[in-house]
Amino acid sequence: MSWITFFKSGPDLSVTNDKEFIDTKFTYYRQRIIWIITLCYGLGYVCRLAFNVVKKPLMDNGIFTPEELGIIGSALLYGYALGKFTNGFLADHAHVGRFFAVGIFMSAMANVGMGFSELAWLATILWGINGWFQGFGAPSSVVSLASWYTNHERGRYYGIWSTAHSIGEGITYLGIAWLIAEVPKGLALDWQWGFWIPAIICIFAAVLIYTCLPDRPRAMGLPSIADWSGDHGAKTGAESEESIWRTQLKVMAIPSIWILALASSSMYVTRYAINSWGNVYLQEIRGFDLFDANLFIFFNTVAGIAGCIVYGFVSDKIFDSKRPPTNLLFGLFELVPLFVIFYGPPNIYLLGICLVVYGFGLSGILASLGGLFAIDIAPKKVAGAAMGFIGIFSYLGAGMQDYISGKLIYASEIQVVFTNSSQDYTVFFYNYDKPIIFWVGASVLSFVLAASLWKVKVAE
Amino acid sequence: MNKAMFFIAIGLLFLSGCSDEGDVDFCRTYKDSYLAQNRQITEIKASVTDNASLTVTIQTPEQELLNRFQAADFSPVVFNDRSDCKLEDRSLSAEQVRISYACNTDNGRLKHIVFNLLDKYPSVDEVKVSFTTPAVTKNYLLHRMCPKPLFL
Question: Does A410 score more than 50 pLDDT?
């Protein structure tokens, strides 16, 4: 069996006439698939985020400078952006169980390698490759959702699957931080375990996916989900006749999509700045230990779940499906706490509240800029391409952020060394004033750009 | 059976990660014991500004070090070649010396500050450091038996 055949989705098999058999199989697989993709996509997240947790130990041990950490972190985001572009196409043709399993397994291998890698260029390559393999998970999950759940129930199942982000962030920002944090809050394991334990978790997930996530129904001798449920979507014949290039060109000819892409990209700068450097900032400048700093970031990301849901509800029910006023409201929810976090009084409770409100506002506004508002503005025929365009733009912004933040932080470095005959003690000091201006400034720019689309009309 | 082996493997991995050297056990308890006893040890308080001024205050119970405070050429800091630093102020009391330097550097900032107390004075086994930059103050303990600074 060649490796291409291994990944390829099986041929359509003839469908049995035994309705009871078909119903039993669909019930069984549909129950299993949703929890497999939710659990395993969440577990896969750990291999993506572990690097953020071990950044501070890597800096303290003098293994990587902040600039190098920025380059390594941005490599993952560029790899992920590339993966978003390529893997969606590949997943459409793949046996998703194998495709997803191999992606998550290779991501685990990259994490194993990171634990041994103290060379910046090697770590950059490994983490870039990890980014690309991380991009196997989402399209595989979406293909599974599309293959096994009907048009009318997909929204609900998509919502359940979306909780995987929080599962992953929870395990990482609490669990992995607990492994690395000093006693008594953690196990005080060396930073390498911050990569190796996620690798073990991802290998476990890969085995689970490989054994439990099936191919398409038609490749298993079952009817398609639409035929089984009788839930057929509208035909989009005219759309499918257009070439991909023409579709993409149409998207790029819409000025408001460019503005939206810039707004989303700027917001991704802030989002990934807080996710990547927030816990380092809290440890370096605010004096929290590793566990508490990651706990704060965890609260911030969990608040995001509510932000997504409430944004949709508020914009639909209160503002009659008008996104601009909701964008303004959630933009303020994001921006005001951000100012208080960085420029407000140094109160721990205020910090906690602001991080939660910020996470709530950020997720709402991101759901709009990269999703709901984009679909409103773009002609419906090119909505998918618009979201893809904005998504890639956003991750390019996030990647550049990591590099620029690392460079700015490194430029402020002061090393205080106590020489000693057996070993030197070096403590690093950083100033986050300039990175903070960059992070907050990006949010302000995003807010202004989104507000400039106040009068933009909804496309048909 | 397979499940049991999997969990045993995970357990062994954890155990191998926890097998520390004896010194590390000392270091884990040293900070707490220091804080509980609050005994007097050599303390360094230093601050650096954005325009490359450095002020260092040293307080010590160590006689060897106290004696060296009297010497006019005593400096706890070693500056690298690119830092053109001059002694700006120096004051001495019974157990404490305070020294200020003003430096001219290429970019107007001091980026690398080296203290040689542990190197030059074998009687000094432990040091409490409080170092302040324009952005942050860090407090930590250094002990010869511990491989890393212990943050307070």
Answer: yes
The reply to whether residue B142 touches residue A193, judged by beta carbons under 8 angstroms, is no
Sign of CA dihedral B71, B76, B80, B84: negative
Q: Give how far A189 is from chain B: nearest CA, Å.
A: 6
Alpha-carbon dihedral angle through residues B19, B21, B22, B23, given to the nearest 10 degrees: -140
**Closest residue in A to B77 (Cα–Cα):** A418
**ipTM of the complex in this document:** 0.85
Q: What residues of chain A lie within 8 A of the CB of B127, using their CB?
A: 418
How far is residue A309's CA from residue A298's CA, in Å, rounded to a whole number? 18
**Averaged confidence pLDDT in chain A:** 90
Report the C-alpha gap between A161 and A291 in whole angstroms: 27
**What stretch of H or E contains A299?**
helix A290-313
* pLDDT at A458 > cutoff 90: no
Nearest to A416 among B13, B116, B131 (CB): B131
From chain B, the residues in CB contact with A417 under 8 A are 112-115
DSSP β-bridge partners for residue A309:
none
**Cβ–Cβ < 8 Å for A299, A192:** no
pLDDT tens-digit series, residues A318-372: 888 888 999 999 999 999 999 999 999 999 999 999 999 999 999 889 888 876 7
For residue A167, pLDDT over 60 is answered with: yes
Rounded to 10°, the helix A383-411/A66-92 angle is 160
How high is the pLDDT of residue B37? 85
Identify all chain A residues contacting B111, using CB atoms and an 8 Å cutoff. 413-415
CA distance B18 to chain A (A): 7
**Interval B13-36 mean pLDDT:** 68
Residues in A lying within 8 Å of B, measured between beta carbons: 60, 183, 187-190, 193, 196-197, 200, 204, 284-285, 287, 412-423, 425, 427, 429-433
pLDDT at residue number A373: 82
Q: Is the pLDDT of residue A223 over 50?
A: yes
Q: Do A189 and B149 touch (CB under 8 A)?
A: no
